Amino acid sequence: MRAIKEARKYIERSPTLPQAMTLSRLVLALESEGDFKIADLYHLDMERFKLALEILDEWRLDRHYASKAKLFDVSMQMAVLEGQTDKVAASESKKR
Fold this sequence. Notes:
Blueprint: H1 2-13, H2 18-32, H3 46-95
Helix pairs in contact: 1-2, 1-3, 2-3
């Protein structure tokens, strides 16, 4: 998360600079899964261009972990439901 933190600090320090605005639009597009003009990255200086690439890399990695967390959450919900289903089935068989 180094690049994301670095970008946040840069944007906070210089919110009116065109490069900060570009990085901000990139982050908003990533979060909302919206459109972003890739050509805007080429207007960044080399340091900010590399930062944008690092943001993309970290965002992709974080998204992978978020997907794993969602999968784990759904799996836990299913385990709970299966446990409840087993209890209901056992209760129904005792009634018969």
